[in-house]
Amino acid sequence: DQNLQQKDEL
Amino acid sequence: MNVFRLTGDLSHLAAIIILLLKIWKTRSCAGISGKSQILFALVFTTRYLDLLTSFISLYNTCMKIIYVGCAYATVYLIYAKFRATYDGNHDTFRIEFLVVPVGGLAFLVNHDFSPLEILWTFSIYLESVAILPQLFMISKTGEAETITTHYLFCLGVYRALYLFNWIWRFYFEGFFDMIAIVAGVVQTILYCDFFYLYVTKVNAVQRFQ
User: Fold this and answer.
1) What is d(CA B112, CA B135) in angstroms, rounded to the nearest whole number?
2) How confident is the model at residue B203 (pLDDT cuts 50, 70, 90)?
3) Quick check: B63 and A10 CB within 8 A?
């Protein structure tokens, strides 16, 4: 799940 | 990073700094909901815990630290330094009615049942409704100072710009995060009534009623 990758948005 | 994302972040930063400067320069937090500011401090705290676990970019780290720092500085000004000017009688929204359901929802609907992910999800849901005590306060008193409306406008525009950012990212990167998108839509909708009043009244009358 790509949403579990690092969250680059603020 | 695209233009919507960057202007969204800058709009968010502008909102935070406008509020801090307004309170600092006027030595007063009259008309500002301390409860909304507590909720925003809680939002940033629970969302940016990944500062401790992962490094994404210098931009990302700096902005997170600035947002968290400003949020706590604002809460400090309202509840400590300028407490005498805090309009607590009109700031009567019950924040447990937001925090408890949002916490429950974060447990039920999330990308992964892990502590950091649940707290991140909690922060996304909570941010979407964190402005309600402030809007409630304005509807109760029936007015807001012009600078307060500029703050709200920048804060609302930020999430609206993020919606365009997500559309952009979906088309060009195939990226989408349903939790963030749905919460972002809810958050933007909550500001719509305010946007309308801001455009039609604030710039004409310089007094928001």
Assistant:
1) 32
2) low
3) yes
Kindly identify which residue of chain B lies nearest to residue A1, measuring between CA atoms: B111
pLDDT digits (tens, 9 = 90+) for B87-138: 999 999 999 999 999 999 999 999 999 999 999 999 999 999 999 999 999 9
ipTM for the predicted complex comes to: 0.84
DSSP secondary structure string, B16-48? HHHHHHHHHHHT--TT--HHHHHHHHHHHHHHG
Mind telling me how many Å the CA of A6 is from chain B's nearest CA? 7
Q: Do B180 and A9 touch (CB under 8 A)?
A: yes
Contact B59, B173 (CB under 8 A): no
Quote the pLDDT of residue A2.
Answer: 60
Write the residue in B12, B64, B111 that is nearest to A1 by C-beta. B111
Q: Tell me the C-alpha distance between B147 and B18, whole Å.
A: 8
What's the CA gap between B126 and B170, in Å, rounded? 24
Contact B111 A9 (CB under 8 A): no
Contact B175 A1 (CB under 8 A): no
* Nearest to B85, CA basis, from B8, B164, B13, B30: B30
The answer, for B28 touching chain A at a CB cutoff of 8 Å, is no
For residues B139 and B190, the answer to whether their CB atoms sit within 8 Å is no
Distance (Å, rounded) from C-alpha B178 to C-alpha A1?
Answer: 12
